[in-house]
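Appendix B. Raw example, untouched.
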Amino acid sequence: MNAEILLSRRAALTPNRVALLEAAAGRRFTYAELEARANQTARWLAGRQVEPGDRVALLAHNSVQFVDLLFACLKIGAIFNPLNWRLAAPELAYILSDSRPKVLIFGPEFSGLMPDLRPALDDACLIPCEGAAGPDSAEPPLEPEVAAQAADPILIDTVGGDDPACLLYTSGTTGRPKGAMLPHRQILWNAINTVISWELTAGDISPILTPMFHAGGLFVFLTPLFYAGGRVVVARTFDPADSLRLIQKEGCTVILGVPTLFQMWLEAPEIRTADFGRVRWFISGGAPCPLPLLEHWRRETGTVLRQGYGLTEAGTNCFTMTDEEAVAKAGSVGKPIFHSAMRLVDAGGNDVPPGETGELLIQGPHVMTGYWSNAQATAEALRDGWLHTGDMARQDADGFYTIAGRYKDMIISGGENIYAAEVEAVFHEHPGVRDCALIGRPDEKWGEVGLMVVVPADDTVTAEALLAHCAGQLARYKVPKSVVFIDTLPYSPYGKVEKIKLRAQVLGI
């Protein structure tokens, strides 16, 4: 049950097949070459006295080193801890003081952060990548040290399925980030579930355009395609025009994005001449994809855009659907993946009937073991063998699920539940709305009422017109009591509106 087999076993089966293209450097790596690099990196870590259970942190843009370090850690029982480079120094310092890595590796763009992060690192070794310069305490650059190691296999054979493999910190949209502990079995079963349920093959090629410090960048397609024998194309950062060219040049077949990424593509002039002849389907994840965006994408490109659902705690790929279902059931995330069980429950833990909204619970080998050094959060999330996701959903008579929004993103107004995602979907249908987010505003009579924050598409749209648009589409109690306009919404790196920041910005609370 050591997830390192996703690379080592594949390298044994198809050693000379190209597994990864590092787009920025133009470097291609076969499975055998990636396996050798992972073995060298594992030997280097072991030489730094990194032992089973030790954390290995990485602060860098997307590169082959994410693959090197992930599989090196899997081989020796260490825990891979990639860091969100979009965070400010105090936010990173909080995560580092919580995870306490033995080694922190950093790219050249982040050299300037090291003096600020050093106090949070205890005695951890600071290792720069080539071109990076750290404080006086930094060690020699990573690459020459690793290249000097032997490439023959190294493996701690006592690592089991429940042993932690990755420590990924949640985006913190509702508070301080929590470190989700992903065991080896989760990585394996996410790959198995994805290949079976999404029908991936050795012929599939996928670009990694989202940050690899998130579960989406690491596990939506990278590890499943290694299991199937396919190929990934790693982009260092995202650029709309460059990524469209890359998709066409490399013949990509399955493509992950987030709603904001698809919107940026639609606004890029290059979309009008893009040839997606090799693409089987696109999939949107990270946040609910507005129906107008789904429809606009299909009209503009003639390709299928599925909506997916996953979460760090239960794997990135929890539902599946066919191309035909993605159109007929637009807005749905599909049906549960093969090796998984799901329930929808009310506040009392009772199953709700089809058509009613309840909290989504997930059970299966693809669920995390808990949160790092946070027994209370673990006990709240994992109860009676089920992961309580905090996401609200409903199931239709055909078995298709639709996500209604976060439980904590629910407004209770006069005793009635209002799910933000449902109201936002109606606002997104108005042509004068570029983006929007619903938050609760304190109210003496109703407890709280809805306040819709809108990024307008032009300067002619009015609050009155938007509220009138809701008439007949939403129950009166769901219609926001007011609308405010702003220039941009605060987003997390994976496409979720950070409503804590939005409330502070708009309401000062």
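End of appendix B.
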